[in-house]
From TrEMBL:
This is TPM domain-containing protein. It comes from Arthrobacter agilis. Residues 293-308 have a biased composition (Gly residues). Residues 57-178 form the TPM domain. Pfam families: TPM_phosphatase.
């Protein structure tokens, strides 16, 4: 049948008249609009929240009671006052959006978790909206607290606790284990049951006496070792003259820092102490508030993620 002037010429496909070029352009425009509206097919990452005005815990998802949040922050402050091996912060959020690894790294970097120059920061992130978990570690802490260790904490502590909605216990145990690993120790596979000793008063008294005795003996032993190191360093280098304050700071440093990376030569320790007294004194100078956010950085992707 001949085509009249009022008809549109064009190829047919499956019985449908196709208009070359025009339909392809319309399809491209439609696809572009869809991508624009949907954000290129992916979810938009949530904004990085402001770090806590006080403390080291931001419970944006509101899964902790005020008392639980206070106790968790007190644990972090207490551990920060006794060790420089790690600085831990905690964030809960209801929907991080996108990759939780990218989000955790952005938050840890923006919050400056860790001590400046030490790269010892660790950020725990719990996304209750997506039911995802992340431990983000800075480069300096990964030698003692490896990615495998972080994965164990996520799988053995955080995931089961969050699956049971026991959020405070999961975060508390996870924070405690991070510090243990960072200090060169490991958590006990089966926690000691102190309740049993409540029935035996004499046993408790004996145990406390033994612990106190060990602490006193350990303190004296480590002080003697530090004094021997000071004496040996001054004998080998007559120009090395430490003030009494510096000698005391070195003793505290050697008592609190016990890992294989501890500096055991006072001559090498002194310039590090002068540059960063808070990190190389073993005390709480510069960290009286117990803050974990002290200009840290070095977050290049270490840690582990999980879901529940």
């Amino acid at each position: 049948m001949p085509v009249h002037n009022g008809d549109i010429e064009g190829p047919h496909r499956g019985g449908v008249l196709m208009i070359p070029g025009r339909r392809r352009r319309a399809g491209a425009v439609t696809a572009a609009l869809v991508l624009l509206v949907t954000g290129c097919g992916g979810s938009r990452p949530a904004d990085v929240p402001e770090r806590p005005v006080q403390g080291n815990v931001l419970d944006a998802a509101e899964i902790l009671t005020p008392g639980e949040e206070k106790d968790l922050d007190a644990l972090i402050e207490r551990r920060n006052s006794t060790t420089g091996a790690a600085r831990v912060a905690v964030l809960t959020v209801d929907g991080a959006g996108g990759s939780i690894e990218d989000y955790a790294r952005a938050v840890a970097t923006a919050w400056q978790v860790g001590d400046e120059g030490a790269d010892n920061g660790v950020l725990l992130v719990a996304d209750t909206g997506e039911r995802e978990l992340r431990i983000e570690t800075a480069d300096g802490v990964r030698e003692a607290f490896s990615d495998d260790d972080a994965e164990d904490v996520v799988e053995d502590v955080l995931e089961p606790a969050f699956a049971d909605e026991d959020y405070a216990r999961g975060l508390t145990e996870a924070v405690d284990q991070v510090y243990l690993y960072a200090e060169g120790s490991e958590p006990e596979e089966e926690p000691f049951d102190w309740v049993l000793f409540a029935w035996v008063g004499g046993g408790i008294a004996l145990l406390l006496s033994a612990v106190i005795g060990w602490i006193v003996a350990d303190s004296r032993r480590r002080r003697r070792r530090a004094d021997e190191e000071l004496r040996a360093a001054e004998e080998s280098d007559p120009d090395l003259r430490l003030t009494e304050e510096q000698r005391d700071a070195y003793r505290k440093y050697r008592y609190s820092t016990r890992g294989s990376d501890a500096v055991s030569n006072p001559a090498l320790w002194l310039p590090l102490y002068v540059a960063n007294p808070a990190l190389y004194s073993g005390g709480t100078a510069g960290h009286s508030s117990g803050s974990s956010m002290n200009g840290g950085g070095g977050f290049s992707g270490g840690g582990a993620s999980g879901s529940y």
